[in-house]
UniProtKB/TrEMBL annotation:
<keyword id="KW-0288">FMN</keyword>
<dbReference type="InterPro" id="IPR036661">
    <property type="entry name" value="Luciferase-like_sf"/>
</dbReference>
<protein>
    <submittedName>
        <fullName>LLM class flavin-dependent oxidoreductase</fullName>
    </submittedName>
</protein>
<dbReference type="GO" id="GO:0046306">
    <property type="term" value="P:alkanesulfonate catabolic process"/>
</dbReference>
<keyword id="KW-0285">Flavoprotein</keyword>
<dbReference type="Pfam" id="PF00296">
    <property type="entry name" value="Bac_luciferase"/>
</dbReference>
<dbReference type="InterPro" id="IPR050172">
    <property type="entry name" value="SsuD_RutA_monooxygenase"/>
</dbReference>
<dbReference type="InterPro" id="IPR011251">
    <property type="entry name" value="Luciferase-like_dom"/>
</dbReference>
<dbReference type="GO" id="GO:0008726">
    <property type="term" value="F:alkanesulfonate monooxygenase activity"/>
</dbReference>
<keyword id="KW-0560">Oxidoreductase</keyword>
<keyword id="KW-0503">Monooxygenase</keyword>
<feature type="domain" description="Luciferase-like">
    <location>
        <begin position="10"/>
        <end position="326"/>
    </location>
</feature>
Length: 372
């Protein structure tokens, strides 16, 4: 029996700006971390009616036989190029608050706002791991609360530079003296953050427009999404958005999709996973860092991808995804797939059809129907 209630959700793609994408294996599609490939993916997503394309920020890979993420595009410059190559889709870049001064980001975002004509969005990361940024001497050995304290000051400065002609600021981490930043963005870009602890959610609700979240399985996704909505209601933020990140492995049948996963797991790069586990578990805030714990959990389970991956036929994936979207009250779905051309096309045509049948409407579905 189909669920007749309806939920509208945004649909985005998490661009594969790191080689190999998000599957840590030598037998998975060995995606190139090139601008041309990512541009092709973004244009395809736009043509199918996706709402946004998001690029991560990563500075150091994990090696191993797959050389996982040893090659990565810088997020902001990549999205500036994709903004020029597209005309409708949202283009979202990522910055680490420990890496970029907010005055530099204020200028960068204003320029990409011009290129995109108001389509730019910003994803901020308050932490990461000591190796990623430590190799450049930029890692700050702050505890969990201190990282969000820095991020709060960082965003305060950024937003002032977006709106004020001259900024004087003297804080714990930043000092600006008669600082000018022109041009201004035409609109204040949406800001998202992946903080998943209660502290992270509260920070995101106060300073950002949306939360970017993972789940370890079906029930955890729903629990995490509902917790975010509960905290938003308590904070008087009813319009706060939640975006779930989903790894999707489609097949013509459920059995075929499971065979794909088994094949990728047969080539799992345990050396890269061990390096990832060591880097994240070595962080002093590991116990409070929900995202880091999920990376480590993948390494300990020796799987090529998260165990929360949606695997199956388009019918199975669409039904399961609809259950989570509606159960967690998600406002957006961000997609990771093994092959960002053929698999993404499956999501943007077949899966969105099943989502609509199960009461989850997307612009991609509307776009697809209008084109028929």
């Amino acid at each position: 029996m189909l669920d007749t209630s309806e939920k509208t959700t945004e649909l985005g793609v998490f661009l594969p700006v790191g080689n190999g994408g998000w599957i840590t294996s030598t037998t998975s599609p060995q995606l190139p971390a090139t601008y041309d490939y990512n541009k092709q993916v973004a244009i395809l997503a736009e043509e199918m009616g996706f709402d946004f394309a998001l690029a991560m920020a990563k500075w150091r890979g994990y090696g191993g036989p797959s050389k996982h993420w040893d090659i990565t595009l810088e997020s902001m410059t990549a999205m500036a190029g994709i903004a020029e190559a597209t005309s409708r889709i949202g283009v979202w870049g990522t910055v680490h608050t420990m890496v970029f001064h907010p005055a530099v980001v204020a200028k960068m975002t204003a320029v990409i706002d011009q290129i995109s004509k108001g389509r730019f969005g910003l994803n901020i990361v308050s932490g990461s791991n000591p190796s990623d940024q430590g190799q450049m001497g930029l890692w700050m050995d702050l505890d969990h609360a201190e990282r969000y304290e820095l991020a709060e000051e960082w965003l305060t400065v950024l937003k002032r530079l977006w709106t004020e002609e001259r900024v004087d600021h003297k804080g714990k981490h930043y000092e600006l003296i008669d600082c000018m930043s022109n041009p201004k963005p035409s609109v204040q870009p949406p800001i998202i953050c992946a903080g998943a602890s209660d502290r992270g959610f509260l920070f995101t609700m106060e300073h950002c427009t949306g939360s970017f979240m993972l789940g370890s399985d079906h029930d955890d996704f729903i629990k995490t999404g509902l917790r975010a909505k509960e905290l938003a209601a308590q904070q008087g933020k009813p319009g706060f958005k939640t975006y779930g990140l989903f790894t999707i492995v489609p097949g013509a049948t459920d059995a075929e999709a499971r065979e794909r996963v088994a094949y990728y797991d047969s080539g799992v790069d345990t050396i890269a996973l061990d390096n990832q586990t060591r880097e994240y578990s070595g962080d002093k805030s590991f116990k409070q860092n929900t995202m880091a714990q999920r990376f480590v959990s993948q390494g300990e389970s020796r799987n090529s991808m998260t165990r929360a991956a949606l695997v199956g036929s388009s019918e199975t994936i669409g039904r399961k995804l609809a259950e989570i979207v509606k159960g967690a009250q998600l406002d957006g779905v961000t997609v990771i797939v093994p092959d960002f051309i053929d698999d993404l096309r499956t999501v943007g045509t077949e899966v969105v059809e099943v989502l609509a049948q199960n009461g989850v409407m997307t612009n991609a579905y509307t776009h697809q129907k209008a084109a028929q």
